[in-house]
Amino acid sequence: MSWTLKLKTPKTALVAGLKALVAGLKAIDWLNYLTIVGRTVMILVGMNLGGSSYPWNPATVIYLLVFGVSTLILFILGEWKIPQVPFIPLSIINTWQRSPTLVAALLHGFVLSITFYFLPLYFQSVLGTSALFSGVLLLPMAIPVFVVDAFTGWVISAMGVYTCGLLIDLPHSRQWARVAIFQIILGAGIDPNFQALTIAFQSAVKSSDVGTATSTFSFVRNLATSIGLILGEVVFQNVMRGQYKLTGTLANGGGASSVFTVNKLPADQKTAARDAYYIAIRDL
């Protein structure tokens, strides 16, 4: 079955339309948009290089981090003084109710990225599972995420309120029930923050600012996800390098990407490598 929907569109003269287009383009906060893009790229690349491909003290890493943080100051000043229509209006983040919500979203993004990246690595490197089976083992966490997500909005609406250390105790051996139960608890705890924090942030701004607030919130969460993954990788690589020679070699070759090499090692070296992976992932 198909149908068409007729929409009434206003007729605008070509010259008037072009003037409106130019006025709209001028109103866009181009300078601060480019500033925040540059800042994000410099900080992420600097953090990714430092402690992984390079030590933290080379000029390249220092320059990227220093200029990345400096452009953050320029971005704040620019949003405060320059544009008629700010890219991220400071008015939506400078209150006691909104700022903690963004901080919570930042921390939630950290936990989310580290968990979904390093749990499959734990399954493959420590427990020796295949890549396919490691995805299956994530189901105990993924299913509660979808189930709880269906009820979070309803609970907030009904009650009117919204408000990972368990993984440290993950087993060294294939205790599947324990692994599954830990993930169920983790998934049920992570998911409410998807909707709850978004609703909390949206409810604290004016109706006219909801679109901008939602975009800002999504940007902060996505940025936190990227930073969390990079920080997790840096910590993981540093702990791996602190192990003995075999695991140091794995770390220098990219410990996360060397997981399939572990299964090809002799039995004694395989045990040592899996012990090192277990310690490195547990420290996250």
TrEMBL record:
It is a multi-pass membrane protein. SUPFAM superfamilies: MFS general substrate transporter (SSF103473). It is found in: Membrane. The keyword Membrane applies. Signal peptide: none annotated. The keyword Membrane applies. One of its GO terms (molecular function) is transmembrane transporter activity. Keywords: Membrane, Transmembrane, Transmembrane helix. One of its GO terms (cellular component) is plasma membrane. The chain crosses the membrane at residues 30-49, 61-80, 101-123, 143-168. It comes from the Eukaryota. Belongs to the major facilitator superfamily. TCR/Tet family. This is Efflux pump antibiotic resistance protein. It comes from Letharia columbiana. The lineage of its organism: Eukaryota, Fungi, Dikarya, Ascomycota, Pezizomycotina.
